[in-house]
Amino acid sequence: MTQTKGQGAGNLFENIPENLEDLRLTVKEAAKYVNESPGVVRNWLRELKSYIPTMQGDNGYHYFDQRALERLMLIRQLNRD
């Protein structure tokens, strides 16, 4: 079963800001976008920290923008091949 980018996201992007630079997703939301579990995304963050450009909030949470989501999609593709 192959899914295209964002297919598994469902209604996740209904309220996308008009300026994609303002897009900020949590680990759970980013995991849903790339069709992986949050635990897998957290493992990628731990193992590939320097390759995934996340922003860290004051609360310690990682937030993903469009660039980081594209990087997650690439990592997922390389991991599955």
Count of separate DSSP helical elements: 3
Strand content: under 5%
Relative helix content: 25-40%
Structural class by helix and strand composition: mainly alpha
Strand tally is: 2
- And the CATH topology? Multidrug-efflux Transporter Regulator, Chain: A, Domain 2
What is the end-to-end distance?
14 Å
Order of strands, main sheet, comes to: 1-2
Shape: globular
CATH architecture: Orthogonal Bundle
Fill in the keyword field for this structure:
two-stranded antiparallel sheet, 40% helix, single chain, 81 residues, mainly alpha, Multidrug-efflux Transporter Regulator, Chain: A, Domain 2, 3 helices
Write the layout of secondary structure elements.
Blueprint: H1 27-33, H2 38-47, E1 55-56, E2 62-63, H3 66-80
Antiparallel strand pairs: 1-2
Task: Please give a structural write-up.
The protein is mainly alpha-helical. It has a single domain, classed as Multidrug-efflux Transporter Regulator, Chain: A, Domain 2 (Orthogonal Bundle), CATH 1.10.1660. The protein is built from 3 helices and 2 strands; from the N terminus they run H-H-E-E-H. The chain has a two-stranded antiparallel sheet with strand order 1-2. Strand 1 and strand 2 (62-63) form a beta hairpin.
